[in-house]
Amino acid sequence: MVADPVLLQTAADLFPNGISRYAVGGLLVGLGTVLIYIGTGIPAGASTFLESTLSYVSDQSRFQQYVGSRDWRLVFTAGIILGGLAFAATFQSGLVTSSLYEPGTTGQLYEVAGVTLWMTEVQPWRLFVGGILVGIGTRIGKGCTSGHGVCGVGSASKTSLVGVLTFLTVAIGTAQVVAALGVSP
Amino acid sequence: MSDRHPLFKPLIFVGGIVFGFGLGFSHMARPEVVLNFLQFDDLGLPFVMFGAAIVSGIAFALLPRIRDAAPLTGDPYERRLKPFDRNVLVGGAIFGVGWGLSGICPGAAYASLGVGNVTILWALAGMFVGAYAQGYWRSHSQSRDTSPAGAD
């Protein structure tokens, strides 16, 4: 079979970094979720951590329902942070390379103690204001990209499918408008 | 709940490490890459979310048929099913605006800290402020919220 050059060009335009780093990363995210589920029966999401951790410092009744899970959710988040660091110390630092990993050109790299770290160039106000809305929205909407997007969709939950469709559509619209207004990065 | 299996937290920790490594490897810990997807410059992101959903979906479908209960908790294997109401749409839309503005979601923000992105503390601070604001509001208007079920 001869590869169609037009088709190849289209694929290169749509996927300038290929798809393998995304697919492999997704498999690992799924694997982490499955490890926890096999051992504990818990389909763990990431955003409940925000409220469960607030229960340590706030008496608001809304947060008290998470007192029973707040300790392991802290452990889960610590693991996620350490997993990010493990990635930084291996693939991001170039210590380990693979044809499945495309390093890309976003943000800024810097080095600390031989580990290549990465810093975003997205403006702090976008991160802070966006973060506030993410904090409100994920908790009112019963889930985030991992709770709804991975565990909920994996459960074929109609609620989660509607949730994902909602935040994905609105996020695309928002990002397009923000870019059209000339806000970058 | 008070006397959990000694391997309960270690397993959660290991699962979190694999989860976070995956978010780093897939570049979801980089807001720029998420924004590039939302602006249609790089369509890789769905491979992450749906790839992960397929892997977990297989486990959610198979495990209840293989075992009655999880070894470390004794809890039955159940799927993640939440009741649908208006909150799913309202919250999803608010989350969508925040995600589209910042390019970061909670799990990816934790992993982003791990890859060295100190600037993401702005987003994490915002998430705690937002989570606190909605919790404060809902704690003081309980009658509006009839579904106290925990969300993920």
Description:
Chain A has helices spanning 5-14, 20-40, 48-54, 61-64, 70-92, 124-140, 147-154, 158-180; strands at 108-112, 115-119. With 185 residues, chain A is mainly α. Chain A has 2 domains: 1-120, no CATH class; 122-185. Chain A has a two-stranded antiparallel sheet. By secondary structure, chain B is mainly α. The two termini of chain B are 19 Å apart. At the A-B interface, helix 2, helix 3, helix 4, helix 5 and strand 2 of A face helix 1, helix 2, helix 3, helix 4 and helix 5 of B.
Q: Roughly what fraction of the amino acids of chain B lie in strands? A: under 5%
Structure classification of chain A: mainly alpha
Number of helical runs of chain B?
Answer: 6
Q: Classify the helix fraction of chain A into a percent range.
A: 55-70%
Largest sheet of chain A: 2 strands, antiparallel
What's the mean pLDDT score of chain B? 93
Task: Report how far the terminal alpha carbons of chain B are from each other.
Answer: 19 Å
Strand line-up in the sheet with most strands of chain A: 1-2
Q: What percentage of the residues of chain A does DSSP assign to strands (E)? A: 5-15%
Work out the radius of gyration of chain A: 19 Å
Quaternary state of the chains = heterodimer
Give the rounded overall mean pLDDT of chain A.
96
Distance between the termini of chain A: 42 Å
Summarize the structure.
Chain A is mainly α. Chain A has helices spanning 5-14, 20-40, 48-54, 61-64, 70-92, 124-140, 147-154, 158-180, and strands spanning 108-112, 115-119.
Key structural traits:
heterodimer, A: 185 residues, mainly alpha, 2 domains, two-stranded antiparallel ribbon, 2 strands, 61% helix, B: 152 residues, 6 helices, globular
Topology (elements, then pairings):
The complex is a heterodimer of chains A (185) and B (152).
Chain A: H1 5-14, H2 20-40, H3 48-54, H4 61-64, H5 70-92, E1 108-112, E2 115-119, H6 124-140, H7 147-154, H8 158-180
Helix pairs in contact in A: 3-5, 7-8
Chain B: H1 8-25, H2 31-38, H3 45-66, H4 86-102, H5 106-114, H6 121-139
Helix pairs in contact in B: 1-5, 5-6
